[in-house]
């Protein structure tokens, strides 16, 4: 693979991560809406974290003269969110989806700063996912390798 191919693959991975971050930001609106007011702090914090990562990705792509992926007007939910447990399960799906995208960024990163960003993002997704898995009653609550299929 040439340097140009590596840079192209890295940029494509950043665009996919941006698309996943857009979906997470949108999805956390649904998560928060299904939680009682006293339980929304985690959803708010997660949404803010994903907004921050989204903004960093936009800047990285613009620095590469690559067009950032725009957010969609809406996203299809994987299941109805009718309770706080459903909301926590949706948050798990959001975090795991973002983690998958960041794992690809880590694999294809062509710069040390991007690799560091991907590692930090993966750590953040797993930290948030652990809390949401516990709230959703899922076991195990941790994943040894966030972003990679457990099978």
CATH fold descriptor: Ferritin
Instruction: Supply the CATH class.
Output: Mainly Alpha
What's the helix count?
Answer: 4
Strand content: under 5%
CATH fourth-tier homologous superfamily: Ferritin, core subunit, four-helix bundle
Question: Quick check: average pLDDT?
Answer: 94
In whole angstroms, the N-to-C terminal distance is: 29 Å
User: Shape from CA axes?
Assistant: globular
Keywords:
151 residues; mainly alpha; Ferritin; 4 helices; 69% helix
Structural summary, described in words:
This protein is mainly alpha-helical and about 150 residues long. It has a single domain (about 10-135), classed as Up-down Bundle (Ferritin), CATH 1.20.1260. It has four helices and no strands. It is globular. The mean pLDDT is about 95.
Write a compact overview of the structure shown:
The mean pLDDT is 94. The protein has 4 helices and no strands.
Task: Give the arrangement of secondary structure elements.
Elements: H1 3-33, H2 41-63, H3 84-108, H4 112-136
Helix pairs in contact: 1-2, 1-3, 3-4
